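Page 37, continued from 36.
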């Protein structure tokens, strides 16, 4: 939290992606603090991919223009990739 709060907006212009575990579901971070971080990053042009299914435990924020990806690639990254990872996880648990 302190690292993000202490980073100037101008420094984030050089950052292509940030992965954060916002543990607002167990009290490590307040929901308000998690919302503030999310609001700040999206306000700086980051797009959000939620990798955890039910909470903000594992979230990737990225700047599509820094990667040179278009809307279809972003949809793939936001929808197909996380669901594929989740399906693999469920299958490995079911068949192990």
């Amino acid at each position: 939290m302190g690292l993000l709060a202490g980073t100037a907006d101008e420094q984030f212009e050089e950052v292509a992606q940030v992965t954060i575990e916002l543990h607002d579901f167990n009290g490590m971070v307040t929901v308000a603090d998690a919302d503030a971080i999310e609001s700040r990053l999206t306000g700086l042009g980051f797009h959000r991919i939620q990798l955890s299914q039910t909470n903000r435990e594992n979230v990737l924020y990225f700047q599509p223009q820094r990667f040179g990806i278009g809307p279809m690639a972003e949809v793939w990254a936001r929808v197909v990739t996380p669901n594929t990872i989740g399906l693999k996880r469920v299958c490995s648990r079911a068949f192990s």
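The chain has five helices and three strands. Flag for discussion at group meeting. The chain has a mean pLDDT of 84.
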